[in-house]
Structure formats: structure tokens, C-alpha cells
Amino acid sequence: MIKRLIEMNKPAINDDRQNKYCSYIMRLLSYFSGERCMVAGSTQKQTRLRIRQDEGDFDYLIISAISIPVSALEYIEDLPCFVHINGLQLVDQLPTVKLIDGRYLPSNLLSDIRPEAFKHMRDFHKLVSHFRKTRGPNSLHVAIDHNIKPGKTLKTKFNNIDYDANGEEFDKDDVILKYKSKSSKDFIPAFPLAGKPRFLDEWKQRKRVWPSEHVVNDIYNSEFFVVAKPALTKRERNKDFCLAYNNGEIKLARAMTSVQKKVVLILKAIKKSLLQDYSEILTTFHWKTAVYWNSETLIPCYL
Asked: Where is each Mab-21-like nucleotidyltransferase domain found (predicted)?
């Protein structure tokens, strides 16, 4: 089983391609603005499990040129990963944005990739995601459930449109599509933070066996972000943001020992199979965090 998981974890040509896409986009954007993009997620953490028919998701972080000062973060009580952003400190950068309750930045600046936050990257996003939509009165609308397993059929709606296929016209409610492989892209808009979020000093000074002091310092000096995400409780979707430690998570994942990485791969395999029905509740993030947390105090010979 371990050998099979290690084989499924090997880098693929498509991984390098995603990084090149981002580098090309950033090279062009450098002439116009400070907006950026980066590949995040399991591709960069080198913990992706893939099969020939399903490469999984590729996560792209779309980064605004507007930095949020950490002094503008108002942490939600009992949920320190979630914040509201005091927009009164950002009037000069976002003069036309209407604040929620006269004080807070609206989260749809990110979730809708609004032009106030993304002057150029917004157009790139429209371009690369254009294939998901069809336009025009005679276009065929196809909506695909990306969670479907390879080899199975997908039902898509025609919206009562006559469509010419090989010279034959037909008008049906659904059509069956088959595919041999799939992959998908997730775009995550983010504001970079100017400064370090709360609790980071406490994390740095915590006594631990793993990771090494060098890795801890490297993570401490990383760039951090906020993304639009509703809080776990007492949600206020119009103004909830979540802290994002993408760079730190990548560095932490790459600092794992061979044993740790195998444990993570096994847990991911269990999640994708036995616990698939609970994957929206008990996510890979929870499993990895549990591994990281326990690794800090494990006897070194176990790592």
C-alpha cells in the first residue's frame, strides 16, 4: 500500500506547467501592477495523491496589490483565524468601496474578484475560467459535476436547444458524456498582510521537537494573507475573512520527514475512500494539522 501511495504522489509534468503559467502571468503583470498569482495547495506541499484518470484540484492564489495592515484586523472572539477588516484604515487605497456598517470591508471584494481590489488579475481570471461558461442564445450549456468518478457518466442539461451533431439535429433533456481523465482549477483571491498576524510570536516561541529552528524562523518571516471565508459560527458572510498561511504551510509540509509524509498520504487515502462521505466535514487540513501538532512533541526517533 505504501509503495502504491508513493507512486501516486510522484510529481507530474502538469505540476511544473502550473508554476510556469503563474510565472508567465506575473511577468506580464509586472509591467502594470503589483498583483500576483502563485500555485498553492497539495501541489506545492508535495502531498498530492493522483491517479491517471484524476489529477485532482490545482489551487491558485490570486493576490491583490493592496496590502492589509495587521492593525486593521479585528479578530472574532473564540475564532482567532477569522477576522473582520477595519476599512477606515484603507480609505486611500479603496476610496469607492462602501463599507459594511460604515466600518468593515465587504468580503465580496475578494469572492467576486471586484475591480477595486484586482485591476488586471480579474481579466486573467475571466480568460482562464471562460471555458466554464457558454454564451449566446444558441450555445449549449454544459454543467459538469467535477466530483463524479472517472468512467461514470455525466448528465448535462440542454435547455431545450436544438444542437447539430454530425449533421443530426436533436432536442433532448439530457446528454450523456464520458471522459477518461479530469483535473480542475480553484482560484482563491487574497489580500496580502502588511505585518505579522496575532499569535505568530507565541507559535514561534513554543517549545518543540519538530520542525527545526531554521524552518520555524523561515515560516515566521513568510508572507501571510486573508481570504474571503465565512466564520465557522455566527457567520457574517458579507464581512468575514480568514487568515491564510499558504507559504508557511508549504514550508512546513516540505520539512516533513519520510515517516510524517507517509502518515499524511495514508490519512489522505483513508479520507478519499473510507471517509469520503465525511470529507466536507473532516478535511485534509484537519488531518495534516493533527500530524503537525503531534509531531512537535514526539520523540525524535519516531520521526
From this structure: 181-249
